[in-house]
Design goal:
Blueprint (H helix, E strand, L loop, with lengths): L3 E12 L2 E12 L3 E5 L6 H8 L7 E6 L2 E2 L5 H7 L1 E4 L11 H13 L11 H13 L15 H14 L4 E5 L7 H17 L3 E5 L3 H7 L2 E6 L2 E6 L1 H6 L1 H8 L4
Parallel strand pairs: 3-8, 3-9, 6-7, 7-8
Antiparallel strand pairs: 1-2, 1-4, 4-5, 9-10
Protein name: ABC transporter related
Pfam families: ABC_tran
GO biological process, one term: D-alanine transmembrane transport
């Protein structure tokens, strides 16, 4: 039986009387590769913000490896082993791809980082390993702001991996990518999950990506969970078809 890495119970968050999440119960086991889907405004990004400390829940608990992290600060949660790649780019556009990842590596090491101090060898090696893994090693000296949209998303992923996560949260990882870039990125996600034992939870509007890669799917609608299950269970659910899939599936 697989160990639970994430257990969410009774999670509630409101903004000005609008319920973004409503009494959510959710769990992930070590090694899972799962997706959260739903229309815009369903509560997906809010849920990720609650998991990563960018929002404080009104009530409920978030257990990561058995420890309640609800209300912890983002950097504390990152140090504990949860990393996130954002839907909207969170890179430093006037820094090179190398230094974007290098700063994340340094933060993970817990040391102050400056472009004007010599970086230690192990940090540089880790940075280059992550860039290579994400297909960016040949663009290491490119300014991040000059990268294509697809490469910016890859850089977001590289920055998240620099934190050596046990749980990786990906917010629309293939948004803005070509078909080839999408296939490359999801092949990498599969590799990270399968060969490096990183648990992955992702949101995605491209349903072909969801059904081809997620082992379990959760559908959110107005902050509530409509259905959780294996892809075929979710695909055939009548309510899911009405509120989200329409005639696509």
């Amino acid at each position: 039986m697989k160990t639970k890495i994430l257990e969410v119970s009774g999670l509630n968050k409101s903004f000005g009387g609008l319920h973004a999440t409503r009494n959510l119960d959710f769990a992930l086991s070590e090694g899972d590769l799962d997706a959260i889907i739903g229309p815009n405004g369903a509560g997906k990004s809010t849920f990720f913000n609650l998991l990563t400390g960018y929002h404080r829940p009104d009530s409920g608990s978030i257990l990561f490896n058995g420890e309640n992290i609800a209300g912890r600060l983002p950097h504390e949660i990152t140090r504990m082993g949860i990393s996130r790649a954002f839907q909207i780019s969170n890179i430093f556009p006037k820094m090179t791809a190398f230094h974007n990842v290098r700063s994340a590596v340094q933060a993970q090491m817990g040391l102050a980082f400056s472009l004007f101090r010599s970086a230690d060898k192990s940090g540089n090696e880790q940075t280059e390993e992550v860039l290579s893994l994400c297909g960016l090693i040949e663009k290491r000296e490119a300014m991040a702001g000059a990268l294509s949209q697809g490469d910016k998303k890859k850089l977001e992923l590289a920055i998240a991996l620099a934190g050596k996560p046990k749980l990786l949260l990906l917010d629309e990882p293939t948004a803005g990518m070509s078909l080839e870039e999408t296939q490359e990125t999801m092949a990498l996600v599969d590799h990270l999950n399968r060969d490096r034992n990183i648990t992955v939870l992702f949101t995605e509007h491209d349903l072909s990506v969801v059904f081809n890669h997620a082992r379990n799917i959760t559908l959110l609608h107005y902050g509530r969970i409509i259905i959780q299950g294996m892809p075929d269970q979710v695909r055939m659910n009548e309510t899911a078809q009405k509120v989200y899939f329409g005639e696509q599936y």
